[in-house]
């Protein structure tokens, strides 16, 4: 009897260890111990979540008990949140109040993060600052060589992001200088470009949405940011649903799960139904097998496959532009989107069919020839994008061998491009079946 009970005990122990295989519990690390104590002092009740390192997602939170639908994942008291209210009640407050023209809520938060990071040991927010990432992988932080490997629409947005942060830095220099009385060191060295880039990325990737009433000391941009220590360790999954909101009665920010989660598994939240390009742009990561992912077709690619001598070409382009059919043309897991096919149908209209363009935009079938040509061109565009993606993947693998310092960033673009390739190959298969059926 005893022997068999021992065997069951070993089995149970093995199972317990197996549960931890996916995530390595990190709650014993000093930075997390200090963070938990700091949160407890501000009224945070210890939940069932533990910081852990996961194989696929890196740092995240695991649950120590099975979660059921509508269970409360986390409830973070208002005192733990970092908002513009926090900034105004700090020594920066009086400088923000008197600065004209008023700074934006975003710049106020960036300034606070940079100042607190500079304060080091004396910062009241040190336990939180210590667990924030030291570097980010948003496009604004990527080297030019890496950005050039992004798909064209994302490349454009990445360049816009870089411009935004640069303009923010230039336009805030005078305000930063006004803070000189607060610092022994020159504000120019404290509030430099890389400090602002880090603070901007921290806010852009980690804030929760929380509406605050408009204050006169801020510019008119919406004040909707709150940094949420510990809660911001929760990673994104496109396959889960949660309900997140500030509870006015309890004065705390709460997240409820709408999916089950087994004991010792990673707990995920959903940042929204974003495709991978948006996830990379806004948060600096890519989700594998993302059901919302799509591959964008640029207007230039669209026009490569149409005879430049088509007399109605310019008129067709005007119609597409006026009816917003030149943007968001995509291939997805279920093939070419309706928008893409519709744009291509209109471009494929024969001279004798051109007067039917309104019916085309409504989704009507104009002729067998038009349908056939549309599928034919869609397949050509799909194959062109497959070849282009394969070519970029080849470039990435060569660069990974030669540029050790860019390996992490290159791996990110590679993950995005591999997902694109899977989508395009699936679309090519669907198009092939459609052509056969037609």
Quantity of strands, as a count: 13
What number is the mean pLDDT?
91
Helix count equals 17
Give the uncertain stretches in residue-range form: 1-7, 14-20
What is the CA-atom radius of gyration, in angstroms? 26 Å
End-to-end separation: 70 Å
The CATH topology label of the domain at 82-227 is set domain protein methyltransferase, domain 1
Shape: globular
The CATH architecture name of the domain at 82-227 reads Alpha-Beta Complex
Instruction: Name the structural class.
Output: mainly alpha
Share of residues in helices: 40-55%
In terms of DSSP E residues, the strand content is 5-15%
What's the main sheet like? 3 strands, antiparallel
CATH top level class name of the domain at 82-227 = Alpha Beta
Organism: Cariama cristata (Red-legged seriema)
Subunit structure: Forms a ternary complex with TBK1 and ZNF268; the interaction with TBK1 is ZNF268-dependent and leads to TBK1 monomethylation.
Domain SET: 47-272
InterPro entries: Rubisco_LSMT_subst-bd (IPR015353), Rubisco_LSMT_subst-bd_sf (IPR036464), SET_dom (IPR001214), SET_dom_sf (IPR046341), SET_MeTrfase (IPR016852), SETD3_SETD6_MTase (IPR050600), SETD4_SET (IPR044429)
